[in-house]
């Protein structure tokens, strides 16, 4: 009996993962409102009823898709040492022409107009990248400063990648990183102070 249960359990895990992976693609490409349950099910190779079985609703599926995208580090790493420079360099490089797209930002852009999706996005941002950045910088008003840093990152991505405003889109990545670091410094001062001891001659960067 135990041997018969194991394949079914594996199939359930694989089915759930296929649905979630398909949902991430559909929500990122089309946004929360335009991504249909049937389209997600078709991409995953299952029936629409399976989505309700594993996730309860489209809202529940979107919540897990947000967690999947916003959980891993992208622009904000995991180390306090060199945080300012690491964030600035990562943001400049990840928004340059030909760079791999930033799916969390795309998902946010294409879904935020829906009030239900906006609430889920807000929770995901505050729980994952917002909490991670606030934990790295600490100090007074860490949460506020962290969210200001994220606002700078999101605005830079939007204007440079989506809108493509001239000077920003054409800027050299190195020079842009310098300017971004100067703007991020007031936000990350607490992290830089804690990461300074001990400190190597070469500025270290966090995971991005």
Task: Tell me what you see in this structure.
- Helix content is 75%, strand content 0%.
- It has 208 residues and is mainly alpha-helical.
- The longest helix is centred in the first third of the chain and has 33 residues, at 2-34.
- The chain starts with a helix and ends in a 14-residue tail after the last helix.
Shape: globular
Structural class: mainly alpha
| Helix run count | 10
Order of helices and strands: HHHHHHHHHH
Residue-averaged pLDDT, rounded?
A: 89
Q: What share of the residues does DSSP label as strand, in percent?
A: under 5%
Largest sheet: none
- Spans where pLDDT lies below 50 across 5 or more residues: 195-208
Describe the protein's topology.
Elements: H1 2-34, H2 37-44, H3 48-55, H4 58-70, H5 83-94, H6 103-111, H7 115-137, H8 142-163, H9 166-170, H10 173-194
Helix pairs in contact: 1-2, 1-4, 1-6, 4-7, 5-10, 7-8, 8-10
